[in-house]
Specification:
Structural class: alpha+beta
Strand content: 25-35%
Radius of gyration: 25 Å
Number of strands: 21
Largest sheet: 7 strands, antiparallel
Order of helices and strands: HEHHEEHEHEEEEEEEEEEEEEHEEEE
Length: 360
């Protein structure tokens, strides 16, 4: 299956981390063993041992007992060992004594990150790119001119559609612009519901309009909403492997997709880097809070949060270094933007915070 092929390919990439020569540094209070529990992720487990959990693939590298590190289940006991001076985790299956042998379901293997957090973003688009926005087909209405629609209704969509595909109804949201160049990067999409080409014998398809059955709604649909194909979920990997990014790649967080005012761990955010910047699934970024500019005079020292103000005036003495507040990992990539998951944050974050490629 396509899904298995992609997962195998990505796992192969993970074990190429042998090229990074630095020895893993363990936490001072790291355990010697750890028993996997339901709800764990590979990232969570690595945080028990490492201050740099994005290096989790190296904990399993060259370990014959764990050929596929993602195939770890609740109940497995992980033991820390050393191989050629490098810390490794080995797995020992938990055995339960019983007078009567019986088969026990192992359940689902643990993922890299909590898939429940990002599943909605994988199965639905949340951003439309500028070039697609121009020709995006719209919900036109029905035969009696109803302005609003709910699950069970039939409406017409602009153009022709594939009868074998599932479509989503979306509403346009805020614009995304580059904070420095003001370039239009795309529009946010709000998911309304699922729809498909109608099978009713009472409606007709033409070369300009197609009737739709409104299958399932998260909210009411309206005239003018977009009708777009639902992304093919099976082509997206279940295991997101951290990938290094050059520290020369710098950008910004544009917004939180869950409308959070204070962004924290497991929040999904939009960044102003995408395919054109060679960003890929798993790309890792540090999250930075810019340091203030400092103006020193004979009588006082003035701090200005907006360093550009002093720089434009030409009288800034220095700009304090940016503070690293956490990391994010990209899990969905568009042409000009990407969606990332905040993996760690030591403080509440906000939109417009800077990001920088994380090398390892």
């Amino acid at each position: 299956m396509k899904f298995k092929r992609i997962t195998s390919l990505l796992l192969g990439v993970a074990f190429s981390f042998v090229a990074f020569a630095d020895t893993l540094v363990l936490k001072e209070d790291h355990p010697e063993t750890y028993t996997v529990v339901k709800g764990d992720t590979l990232w969570d487990i690595s945080e028990h041992f490492l201050n740099t959990p994005w290096l989790w693939p190296r904990l399993w590298q060259a370990n014959n007992q764990v050929e596929n590190p993602h195939l770890i289940y609740p109940g497995d006991v992980l033991t820390l060992i050393w191989v050629n001076g490098e810390p490794q985790l080995t797995r020992k299956k938990l055995k339960k004594l019983s007078p009567i042998p019986r088969l026990e379901e192992k359940g689902e293997p643990i993922p890299t990150i909590p898939l429940a957090v990002i599943s909605a973003f994988l199965s639905k688009d949340h951003i439309i790119e500028p070039k697609l926005l121009v020709a995006a087909p719209r919900l036109l209405g029905d035969a009696i001119g109803s302005p609003r629609f709910f699950a069970g209704d039939i409406f017409y969509g602009q153009g022709q559609y594939d009868k074998n595909k599932l479509y989503g109804i979306y509403r346009l949201g805020d614009d995304f612009h580059d904070p420095k160049t003001d370039e239009f990067l795309g529009k946010e999409l709000t998911f309304i519901g699922h729809t498909e080409v109608s099978k009713s014998p009472n409606v007709t398809t033409t070369d300009k309009v197609t009737p739709f059955d409104f299958l399932k709604s998260a909210r009411e649909a309206r005239q003018g909403d977009l009708i777009l194909p639902i992304p093919e979920h099976e082509t997206l990997p279940a295991y997101f492997l951290p990938q290094p990014v050059s520290s020369d790649v710098k950008g910004h967080i544009l917004a939180a997709l869950n409308n959070a005012v204070a962004i924290g761990r497991w929040d999904a955010v939009v960044i102003n880097k995408g395919k054109r910047d060679n960003i890929q699934i798993g790309s890792m970024f540090s999250i930075l809070r810019s340091g203030p500019a400092v103006l020193v005079s004979e009588s006082k020292i003035v701090y200005q949060e907006d360093a550009s103000r002093f720089e434009q005036m030409g009288d800034a003495d220095l700009v304090l270094p940016a503070e690293r507040l956490g990391e994010l990992m990209v899990f969905k990539v568009y042409e000009k933007v990407s969606i990332g998951l905040v993996m760690r944050s030591s403080d509440a974050l906000g939109a417009k915070y800077e990001i920088q490629g994380l090398e390892f």
